[in-house]
Amino acid sequence: MSFSLISLPLSSPFPNSILLRKFPPIISIPELSSPSSSYYASSTTATLYSSLFIRTTIHSRRPTCSLLTHSNSTFSSMSSGTDASYTDDGSSDSSCCSSATGELGISDSDDDETPQERENDENESSASFPERWHILGLGQAMVDFSGMVDNEFLGRLGLEKGTRKVVNHEERGRVLRAMDGCSYKAAAGGSLSNTLVALARLGGQSIGGPLLNVAMAGSVGSDPLGEFYRSKLRRANVNFLSAPVKDGTTGTVIVLTTPDAQRTMLAYQGTSARVNYDSCLASLMSKTSILIVEGYLFEFPDTIKTIAMACEEARRCGALVAITASDISCIERHYDDFWDIMANYADVIFANSDEARTFCHFSSKESPVSATRYLSHFVPFVSVTDGHKGSYIGVKGEAVYIPPTRCVPLDTCGAGDAYASGILYGLLRGVSDLRGMGTLASKVASVVVAQQGTRLRVQDAAKLEETFAFHNEWSAIRSDVGSDQISSL
């Protein structure tokens, strides 16, 4: 059975009032509808997407049974789930040692940066922001410190291997002092930043279309770590738009990896735990085509209010709203909050198979395609990854299966973040069939899985975009053949 955006039914599965959702304003930008390239988002594609993103207002149709909450949360700011389709970590390698006062010395070199990206940082002060942002991310801004340690090191600090622990400022300093003299990496971390950097690098060449304007809003302190975070994103063509919090302390995640590949994580939230909805953030909504919200922000009650206000304003201004699930434990603890945002504002949801089942209150025996179909009754566009088995895109109660892109996996951390960047890239570039968009995302994830580190490298992004542009008619051709299968599982 053939299935693409062209064949989507316009009827809603629910009798609620229908609200037409506009495709992101990027479509109206003249160069994107240029007749010179069929790969750009054309007026036809805009019409197709308009029919896709028809919103159904839903308030009480979500599952209502109770949940058992896991006592041990495994969520991390390092990256989202590893279940992307596959069969530059953007970091600086330095001796980031703490003094007795807990201050950090950070080298600002980056093996993965190109000369052009370094120039982006040097010229930032004289650069002016674009009139519109193709995508704006709202998420946790935390610096990641990652290094290799042995089991004895964990034992000396009383740390349980393979767990995640929230620590205070003093505990963070104690661990960093213990690592004094050790070499480890510092990076502008976070699941959302992985996605945004990959998207900026994919859209950083004028091959598949105009350069993509990518930005992030969040909360960093006025300390050296805050400037480090902003600088790292800026170099990767991701503009961090929020002003630093005066006297604030930037959040960090220390990732300690033992020889058996077990990761022990220590998170210090700092200022990242609170993102305020101020006039600056409000004004950005009218200049944004897609707003993507990181699910980890749902951990903080005050920030949930910011999420709701930002999503409401984004919808009012005609932008699409995307939500990342981020973590099962986070979903379980804030289930109602997630659903309130998803059902009333979200146009796109990103989740792995376990997260999707959690949203649906499905058991682990339920197939991911069932969860994808179910969620697509509430959210217009659902992206569910299932590791080496592939992925699914759900629309209006149906699910399109995306075969995995074969590769030799080295590090699955960050695979889901990379997959999301591919979906967003497809939406912004006007890819007109669902399977083509999913295949594009799967290829991006497979490249990240086949390397060490969570970030899509600059050279790999350039190769991928060249491939996408070269096959710019591929999606349109395949949208009318039987490969876009509706799963019957």
UniProtKB/TrEMBL annotation:
<feature type="compositionally biased region" description="Low complexity">
    <location>
        <begin position="75"/>
        <end position="102"/>
    </location>
</feature>
<dbReference type="InterPro" id="IPR011611">
    <property type="entry name" value="PfkB_dom"/>
</dbReference>
<feature type="compositionally biased region" description="Acidic residues">
    <location>
        <begin position="108"/>
        <end position="124"/>
    </location>
</feature>
<comment type="similarity">
    <text>Belongs to the carbohydrate kinase PfkB family.</text>
</comment>
<dbReference type="InterPro" id="IPR002139">
    <property type="entry name" value="Ribo/fructo_kinase"/>
</dbReference>
<dbReference type="InterPro" id="IPR029056">
    <property type="entry name" value="Ribokinase-like"/>
</dbReference>
<dbReference type="Pfam" id="PF00294">
    <property type="entry name" value="PfkB"/>
</dbReference>
<dbReference type="GO" id="GO:0003872">
    <property type="term" value="F:6-phosphofructokinase activity"/>
</dbReference>
<feature type="domain" description="Carbohydrate kinase PfkB">
    <location>
        <begin position="184"/>
        <end position="456"/>
    </location>
</feature>
<keyword id="KW-0418">Kinase</keyword>
<feature type="region of interest" description="Disordered">
    <location>
        <begin position="75"/>
        <end position="129"/>
    </location>
</feature>
<keyword id="KW-0808">Transferase</keyword>
<dbReference type="InterPro" id="IPR002173">
    <property type="entry name" value="Carboh/pur_kinase_PfkB_CS"/>
</dbReference>
<dbReference type="InterPro" id="IPR052700">
    <property type="entry name" value="Carb_kinase_PfkB-like"/>
</dbReference>
<protein>
    <submittedName>
        <fullName>Putative pfkB family carbohydrate kinase</fullName>
        <ecNumber>2.7.1.11</ecNumber>
    </submittedName>
</protein>
